[in-house]
Amino acid sequence: MRLLTPNDVRTCEISVHRLREGYDPDEVDEILDSVADTLEVLAKRASAFEKRASRLERICREHGIGIDETK
Known about the structure:
Elements lengths: L5 H6 L13 H38 L9
């Protein structure tokens, strides 16, 4: 699965059918599925990073290492 970039979303083009007004529902569904997949992967990554950061902060506190959160 290829993850979307913000530029992919901003520049995506959805075909307009001449026989009826509007977008092709299947094409829109495909794009929304890709966006949802991307968000799901990013949410999982963010959760993993948060857990890792918490672990590292705990280790630093245990060893008396100060953490400068302004950087």
